[in-house]
């Protein structure tokens, strides 16, 4: 169950990062509220997952999901550049996440 909480926390990290961009420096109320609510939920689920998963694994997976997810959201939704180097970097992050998962108990 901890891995499910961690995955949801990672997805919520993407949500809050995306809406933080949409908030334009917290000057728009609805995206700002979504950012804060998603951030709190993400941190809460991360802390629950950390009850049974190692710190390094939990935090690495959480930030990795957020980093790759935010990259994909930027490219797909916001039309940001998807250069070969950026795609390669995202693939390296995903590879690291897979190795972290394989090396962790539970």
TrEMBL record:
Compartment list: Cell membrane
Membrane topology qualifier: Multi-pass membrane protein
Keywords, ordered alphabetically: Cell membrane, Membrane, Transmembrane, Transmembrane helix, Transport
InterPro entries: EmrE-like, Small_drug/metabolite_transptr, Small_multidrug_res
Spans traversing the lipid bilayer: 27-47, 59-79, 85-102
Main location: membrane
Keyword set includes Transcription regulation: no
Name under which the protein is recorded: Guanidinium exporter
Entry similarity comment: Belongs to the drug/metabolite transporter (DMT) superfamily. Small multidrug resistance (SMR) (TC 2.A.7.1) family. Gdx/SugE subfamily.
Tagged with keyword Ligase: no
